[in-house]
């Protein structure tokens, strides 16, 4: 962080980052275009003797005909068709299929009998894979917690009801935890949940973090919201309760629910966020009602020219600000939908406000509003252009909103760094800026070079020629 | 690249046996329900299943119709319903509804639930509660390893990450142990196992148990060493933008399989019309079978253009050879070369299209500036500028995931944010993307991805004292209680210790990579891969004590099975299996392939799922508290 400015530029220009850029119009990129052309030109050669798509089916479609995903889609399509037909039970006429399974092809025969065709090497290495666990049947008398956990891990039958005393239950749980098997831990917890009062269970879980987290996840998965809230009472529960709002579709009910959340014991920081959420939704409901009405009335020009694409309800704050800068920019600060009012209510920073307003006004091509955003007066009454955002970024935003060259030119000219200014000017074809910068640098060669980039006979070309023939300038080269 | 001085990398074991095993087991399970039946398949199992079996195999075993599990009433008229599902409570509840609806309607059918990779007690408890235990039969299909490529095996469990690291649920730990055991019994015995992270240690112990229970089989080992690593040991690497071709493709063309947005890479990519330069999308299997892809997958994106244009020229020449041939020669050309050329042509035009589309997308979003910010974060340089870049990113409401990614990268590399910055950045994030993201921030803090700096380092001191004072068993419990504190990233110190960030004044030629940093344009060596390199070099953790302390410990190294052949001459000793618990990225795989070429190793990557920054963060968006 202590590096000097020179170091910094050095860094950005260092060879490490340089050999390749993702900027367009790069040599590499044109090379790619060339290759594309080459390959494209080959195409007719190939097509003339193309024996249809058979190769394509095998190697190029990730979903060849006969694949499972393909077939599922077929079922979906056909079931829509058959829905309308009377649902007679189908008579099975598929005898070939049955006879095939009897013809010694059956793989189950291979598993059970181990016929000659079976691949003995595979069977030798992994016999456990071929035998479903349900086939193991044995009688055991050792019911120690350790052994029980072991059997559970192997998917064997166990008798948990033998564990009746609290001490036995907890021992069982602790063994499950030390076996690292989440499946078994949850299984024991399900048993404990059934056989212990929740007060006792919760108390014991407090000192058993791993088990506790499994229990929380289990309750989350089974959507046992009630028990979950009780368990987490002292933890993150205000947030959990607040989360409920996501399941409320009606905006008025949602707003009321959010209001009821305001009294929950959030951290001071989160409490401010939830308060903002409530205020925002309340406001969105008012704006939405008014604007929908105005749009239907057909009297307000802006809604006619730029019909709203979606409702503003439940949108983030910045989106709402953008919306208001778009439709309600010049409203007085007293209204709910005034951008200035929103800015103040939600303590929006200069930069946030500026970026959003700039994008919205540029989208509308309201260049005078854009201009006004930058203009500030100093104490002597002079106006000058100021921006909380780098002018490079400003140019970028304007360019994305297809600002004309005259508008871009003004802001490109405000970029401090001369190299950056030139590259931006070249990119956006602000010829004047390029020419003037080269003139100021007294760089005759660069200016000469630029002559080939502007249209012959244009005003820019004239200007360059005039400068080049100007005897007053003392060129450096 | 010159490899002449190095030993040749040994051959990889053949993993097609894994596919055959699970296919046979599936057939066996289907035959347990004889007669015609309709099969319902869980959406995220469809495409893994496609790689194992196809419809004709299912039909041969009397599967009549196939349906996707969609949580809707079933239309099937079949007498027998079979469900191929993940052990999820939601799915089991839906099946209970189906069965109970049939009961009410007086319909009599047979039902079979096949859980994969295993069933959970919690699911059976649902069957019991809903009163259908006994009305349905259940079974397990031990499909826990899918070969995605010759050197990548996936457990296809993207939820492993949320379940273990966020919820603290260890349900998949045993699954991982079982997968390791399967590899051990087929391709082992392993001679040495290293690992780092709590989950790794548990997986190791569960594997060990299974080895001891089972009988030893003496055969020639095909895999020598194993390295287990938890995803939370290194969060920086998966959060960086990928610039190696395969990683870029994964970042940009979000993989869709079977018509739904998949949360994990299943090895195939859908290229849209912009890539195929026609009006239809193409789904493509990207693996070593695609020769063009195989040559560029590990390359830095800047090298890809040159390669593709060279290829295009060669192809042109090969086609041009035809001119002036007589009939006999043309006949030979058609029978010997044409097919290969046509395939290459198809692959080439696709990858050129993909590269072009990548360029377009990346130039549109100021990728260059984004990379600069990432690189300065990694270097710990001009942090204020980075913060203001991130602020602008959020203020302009550019991608919500990108903003989050940069915030996390900032927090991890800076060892947490200053309270003032944390509050202001969080507020701006909520204002731009919605207050609902309060939950996202809770999750991020829990994982240690986005945290406030603690006042002073007093807590870590206390923690280490406690760790020294008490014996192991109680220490386990205490560290659990301190788990939120234990997740200090210490990235800066680690980066210095392991020289992860090469000096910026040195030139880095991406065409001739000198170390694994090439996968991030020479700006950063992935921590995960660097650890693996260091441990393999030393054959132990000795000398890395300071590093493991900074990583919060939990490292281990143990001898494998007694029957293992340890001699260095044995090729298997240079085949190393790396298991990522919680996912790994293609960039990491590329880095390991590079390391393998440099040192004469071959790496096999086993991962719970292929991940990238978007998948990692999206997993946290809808998972709260």
TrEMBL record, chain A:
<dbReference type="GO" id="GO:0006886">
    <property type="term" value="P:intracellular protein transport"/>
</dbReference>
<dbReference type="InterPro" id="IPR040057">
    <property type="entry name" value="Spe-39"/>
</dbReference>
<feature type="compositionally biased region" description="Polar residues">
    <location>
        <begin position="71"/>
        <end position="80"/>
    </location>
</feature>
<dbReference type="InterPro" id="IPR038132">
    <property type="entry name" value="Vps16_C_sf"/>
</dbReference>
<protein>
    <recommendedName>
        <fullName>Spermatogenesis-defective protein 39 homolog</fullName>
    </recommendedName>
</protein>
<feature type="region of interest" description="Disordered">
    <location>
        <begin position="71"/>
        <end position="93"/>
    </location>
</feature>
<dbReference type="GO" id="GO:0005769">
    <property type="term" value="C:early endosome"/>
</dbReference>
<keyword id="KW-0968">Cytoplasmic vesicle</keyword>
<dbReference type="GO" id="GO:0005770">
    <property type="term" value="C:late endosome"/>
</dbReference>
<dbReference type="GO" id="GO:0007034">
    <property type="term" value="P:vacuolar transport"/>
</dbReference>
<keyword id="KW-0967">Endosome</keyword>
């Amino acid at each position: 962080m202590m590096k000097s400015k020179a170091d910094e530029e050095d860094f950005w220009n260092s060879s490490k980052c340089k050999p390749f850029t993702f900027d367009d119009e790069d040599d590499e990129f044109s090379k790619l275009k060339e290759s594309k052309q080459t390959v494209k030109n080959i195409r007719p050669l190939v097509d003339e003797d193309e024996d249809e798509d058979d190769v394509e089916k095998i190697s190029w479609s990730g979903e060849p005909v006969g694949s499972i995903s393909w077939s599922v889609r077929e079922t979906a399509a056909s079931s829509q068709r058959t829905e309308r037909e009377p649902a007679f039970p189908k008579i099975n006429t598929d005898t070939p299929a049955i006879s095939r399974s009897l013809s010694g092809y059956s793989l189950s025969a291979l598993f059970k009998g181990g016929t000659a065709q079976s691949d003995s090497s595979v069977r030798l290495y992994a016999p456990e894979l071929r035998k479903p666990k349900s086939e193991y049947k044995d009688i055991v008398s050792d019911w120690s917690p350790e052994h029980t956990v072991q059997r559970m891990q192997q998917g064997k039958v166990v008798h948990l009801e033998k564990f009746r005393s609290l001490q036995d239950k907890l021992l069982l749980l602790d063994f499950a935890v030390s076996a690292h098997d989440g499946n078994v831990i949850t299984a024991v917890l399900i048993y404990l949940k059934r056989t212990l009062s929740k007060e006792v269970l919760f108390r014991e879980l407090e000192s058993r973090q791993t088990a506790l987290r499994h229990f929380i996840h289990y309750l989350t998965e089974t959507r046992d919201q009630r028990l979950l809230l009780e368990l987490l009472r002292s933890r993150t529960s205000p947030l959990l309760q607040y989360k409920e709002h996501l399941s409320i579709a009606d905006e008025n009910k949602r707003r009321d629910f959010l209001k009821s959340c305001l009294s929950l014991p959030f951290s001071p920081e989160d409490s401010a966020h939830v308060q903002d959420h409530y205020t925002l939704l309340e406001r969105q409901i008012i704006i939405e009602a008014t604007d929908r009405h105005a749009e239907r009335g057909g009297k307000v020009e802006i809604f006619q020219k730029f019909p709203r694409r979606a409702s503003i309800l439940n949108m983030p704050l910045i989106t709402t600000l953008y919306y208001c800068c778009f439709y309600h920019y010049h409203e007085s600060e007293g209204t709910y939908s005034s951008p200035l009012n929103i800015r103040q209510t939600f303590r929006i920073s200069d930069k946030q406000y500026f970026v959003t307003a700039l994008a919205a006004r540029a989208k509308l091509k309201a260049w005078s509003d854009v201009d006004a955003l930058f203009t500030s007066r100093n104490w002597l009454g002079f106006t000058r252009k100021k921006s909380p955002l780098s002018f490079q970024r400003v140019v970028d935003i304007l360019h994305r909103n297809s600002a004309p060259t005259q508008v871009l030119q003004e802001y490109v000219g405000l970029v401090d760094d001369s190299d950056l200014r030139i590259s931006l000017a070249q990119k956006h074809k602000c010829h004047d800026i390029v020419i003037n910068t080269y003139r100021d640098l007294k760089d005759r060669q660069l200016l000469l070079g630029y002559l080939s980039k502007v249209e012959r006979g244009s005003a820019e070309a004239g200007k360059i020629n005039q400068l080049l023939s100007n005897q007053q300038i003392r060129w450096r080269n | 690249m010159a490899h002449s001085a190095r030993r040749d990398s040994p051959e990889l074991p053949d993993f097609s046996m894994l596919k055959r095993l699970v296919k046979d087991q599936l057939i066996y399970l289907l035959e347990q329900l004889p007669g015609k039946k309709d099969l319902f398949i869980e959406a995220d199992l469809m495409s893994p299943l496609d790689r194992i079996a196809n419809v004709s195999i299912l039909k041969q075993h009397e599967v009549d119709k196939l349906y996707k599990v969609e949580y809707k009433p079933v239309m099937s008229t079949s007498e027998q319903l079979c469900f191929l599902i993940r052990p999820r409570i939601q799915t089991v509840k839906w099946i209970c509804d189906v069965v109970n609806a049939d009961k009410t309607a007086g319909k009599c059918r047979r039902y079979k639930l096949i859980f994969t990779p295993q069933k959970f007690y919690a699911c059976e408890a649902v069957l019991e509660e809903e009163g259908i235990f006994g009305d349905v039969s259940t079974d397990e299909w031990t499909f826990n390893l899918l070969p995605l490529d010759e050197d990548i095996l996936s457990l296809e469990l993207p939820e492993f990450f949320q379940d273990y690291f966020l919820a603290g649920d260890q349900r998949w730990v045993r699954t991982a142990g079982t997968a390791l055991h399967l590899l051990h019994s087929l391709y082992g015995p392993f001679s040495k196992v290293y690992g780092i992270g709590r989950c790794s240690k548990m997986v190791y112990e569960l594997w060990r148990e299974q080895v001891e229970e089972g009988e030893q089989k003496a055969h020639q080992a095909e895999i020598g060493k194993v390295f287990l690593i938890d995803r939370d040991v290194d969060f920086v690497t998966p959060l960086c933008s990928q610039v190696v071709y395969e990683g870029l493709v994964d970042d940009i063309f979000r993989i869709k399989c079977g018509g739904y947005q998949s949360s994990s890479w299943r090895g195939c990519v859908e290229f849209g019309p912009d890539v195929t330069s026609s009006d239809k999308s193409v789904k493509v299997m990207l693996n070593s079978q695609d020769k063009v892809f195989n040559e560029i997958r590990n390359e830095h994106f800047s090298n890809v253009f040159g390669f593709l244009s060279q290829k295009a020229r060669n192809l042109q020449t090969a086609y041009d050879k035809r001119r002036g041939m007589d009939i006999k020669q043309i006949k030979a050309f058609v029978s010997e070369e044409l097919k290969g050329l046509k395939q290459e042509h198809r692959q080439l035009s696709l990858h050129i299209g993909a590269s072009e589309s990548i360029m377009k997308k990346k130039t549109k979003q100021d990728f260059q500036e984004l990379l600069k910010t990432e690189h300065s974060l990694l270097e710990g340089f001009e942090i204020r500028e980075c913060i203001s870049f991130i602020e602008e990113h959020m203020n302009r409401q550019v991608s919500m995931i990108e903003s989050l990614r940069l915030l996390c990268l900032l927090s991890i590399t800076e060892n947490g944010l200053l309270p003032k910055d944390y509050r202001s950045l969080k507020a701006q994030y909520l204002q731009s993307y919605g207050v609902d993201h309060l939950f996202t921030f809770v999750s991020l803090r829990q994982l240690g991805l986005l945290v406030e700096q603690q006042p002073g380092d007093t807590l870590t001191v206390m923690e280490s004292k406690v760790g020294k004072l008490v014996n192991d068993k109680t220490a386990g419990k205490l560290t659990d209680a301190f788990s939120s504190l234990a997740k200090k990233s210490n990235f800066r110190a680690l980066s210095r210790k392991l020289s992860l960030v090469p000096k910026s004044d040195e030139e880095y030629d991406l065409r001739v990579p000198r170390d694994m940093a090439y996968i991030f344009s020479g700006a950063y060596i992935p921590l995960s891969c660097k650890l693996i390199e260091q441990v393999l070099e030393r054959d132990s953790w000795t000398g890395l004590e300071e590093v493991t302390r900074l990583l919060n410990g939990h490292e281990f190294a143990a001898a494998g099975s007694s029957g293992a052949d340890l001699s260095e001459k044995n090729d298997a000793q240079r085949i190393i299996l790396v298991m990522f618990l919680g996912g790994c990225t293609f960039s990491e795989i590329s880095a390991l392939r590079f390391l393998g070429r440099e040192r004469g190793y071959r790496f096999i990557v086993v991962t719970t799922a292929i991940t990238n920054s978007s998948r990692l963060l999206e997993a946290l968006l809808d998972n709260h508290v």
